Amino acid sequence: MERWQDKPFWWLSPSGTNKVLVWVPWTGYAMSHLMKPNEEWVAKYQERLDSVKFPYEISHIRWSGHGDNAEPDPGICEFVKSWNEEYEWPKFRISSTSAAFSAFEDKYGTELPQFKGDLTPYWEDGAGSSALETGMNRAAADRLTQAESMEAMLATENYRPAAFHEAWRNVLLYSEHTWGAWCSVSDSESPFTLEQWKIKRQFAVNAERQSKELLSTILRSYGVSKTKSVVDVLNSTSWIRSDLVVLSPEMSATGDHISDDHGVSIPSQRLASGELAFLPDQVPAFGGARFHISAAPAHKPSKIASIRNGVLENGIIRASFDLNTGNLVELALHGKAGNLVDTSEGGGANKLLFLEGKDISKIQTSGPCKVVVEESGPLVVSLRMESSAPGCKSLVRRARLIAGADWIELTNVVDKERAPLNPHPGQGGPGDEFAQRGAKESLQFAFPFAVPGGKMHIEIPFGVMQPEIDQLPGSCKNWLPVGRWIDVADSSSGMTWVSLDAPLIEVGSVTATMLGSQTNPSGWRENIAPTQKFYSWVMNNHWGTNYRAYQEGAVEFRYALRPHGGYDSVASSRLAIGLSQPLVASAAGANSPSHSLLQIEPADVLVSGFKRSDDGKAWIVRLFGASGQSRRAKVRWREGISTSTWLSDIAEQKYKPVADYVEVAGWDLVTLRIELA
Question: Which CATH number fits domain 598-676: 3.30.428.10, 6.10.250.3280, 2.60.40.2220, 2.60.40.1730?
Answer without folding.
Answer: 2.60.40.2220
